[in-house]
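Students often ask what a holo structure prediction actually looks like on paper. The answer is less mysterious than it sounds. You provide the chain, you provide the ligand, and the output is a string of discrete structure tokens encoding the 3D arrangement of the protein together with iron/sulfur cluster.
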Amino acid sequence: MKPAVDVDRIRDASLLPIAEKVAQGTRLDTADALALFRTPDLLGLGHLADAVNQAKNGRVVTFAANQHINPTNICVLRKTCVFCGYARLPKEDGAYRYTLDQVLAEAEPARTGLTREFHIVGGLDMQAGLEYYTTMFRALKREFPHVHIKALTAVEIAHLARIEKLSWKEVLTALREAGLDTMPGGGAETFSAAVREQIADRKLGGADYIAVHRAAHELGIRSNCTMLYGHVETMEDRVAHLSMLRDLQDETGGYLAFIPLAYHPDDNELGKRLQREGRATTGFDDLRVLAVGRLFLDNFRHIKSHWIMVTPFLSQVALAFGVNDMEGTVVREKVYHAVGATTPQGLPLAEILKLIRGAQRIPAERDAFYQVIRHFDDDLPRVAAD
Ligand code: V47
Ligand code: SF4
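The corresponding structure tokens follow.
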């Protein structure tokens, strides 16, 4: 289905050639993406992104009932990822590493049968090797066989490979045998080497992040991808980042969703500097990144808004800017709350339904592969004609 583009809704004349491409289903190039990042016509941009989203997903907006488990906050990169407020050195106040019993206790709410996914990520801990995770995944699958395991970022996979002296593929294969189903998209930050040098100096580089995801996709392990924005990156860095994701998706088709992550400046080193310089993301920028993601990543079906970071209300507005999925009814999120996120640590089902219905969309619960498992309503009142 072709996107229903209405050029009368475009106020910035320089966007008209792009609107024409969108209407024809022609792939946007990097110059187009830059123009979209720079346009003051946020509503025009949103209309294009919404038209593409509705052509792909109709008015259905999905969410998943997932539960976060962060097994260790001990991380060898504690001093060099200057945007992270979550990590600790082993002997630092607040450092923790869960035992298997603690992980199982944390997972306990899934016993009710409502949770369908564990999202498991943590620090690069020298004492949490491959066996720590294979034992954990096996136990979780034994206790909660109905729950999908989405675990370990590309950065954690590379760390395990390094400390175990194994290849990425060997690590991924062992984890999959133990119960890993898919991988989350964290650790991407912004791929540009110049940006990484400033915010995550010793972290796995952008090309290697892509290479780990390629290795996963080749093994049939699907993954998400992210982009941390709103710190020191330029618009060109954003476009280069999105291009690398689009290229891998062309190659493997293994990505499930793109999730932009709004940089949160509280309680971390980098934030002190950026706040002094008056820099942080704004609602406009948050909507813009989601909409450009929808338009430029034409080979992705799902664009997810992370309400934990941008607030539930902005995520709701984002449903008119190309977004078709909201981070779910999350239980116990820690990474963002360590850097001062004031959003709730979980949203009850009724609240998610209210937000999606309030945006005149049709809520549907999905599984980890974005298959709808429960519809709620499909007979919403039509929006009054304008
Ligand atoms: O990799 C860390 C980011 C990520 C800060 O795949 C920060 O379904 C903002 O990747 N401000 C982890 N962001 C979260 C993540 C994620 C979240 C939801 C869904 C999925 C998925 C993945 O959080 C880290 C890093 O990029 N992060 N510190 C900060 N101060
Ligand atoms: Fe460690 Fe990840 Fe935090 Fe970097 S962002 S310090 S790798 S936990």
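The chain has a mean pLDDT of 91.
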